[in-house]
Amino acid sequence: MRWTLWEPGALRPRRRLRCKWVKALRDKLQPFAHGVYVNQLGETSDELVRAAYASNYARLVEIKKKYDPKNVLHLNQNINPH
Asked: Domain map of the chain by residue range?
């Protein structure tokens, strides 16, 4: 048996609290931010992906419709072709 400082899963509640705190801080700092770095999104949402690609988003949707209409390449910062 291997000794550990904590039981498996013991940090999950703390992790949730820390993630909640980080997200709240991110939201508070948003008015001071200018753009989004696409490779650092971590947790993606359609809103963040649109912000990251900014004025290029519409053009990228058209490219995605042409070359990946079934959205096979959908991981990471996905641009939905629909």
From this structure: 44-82
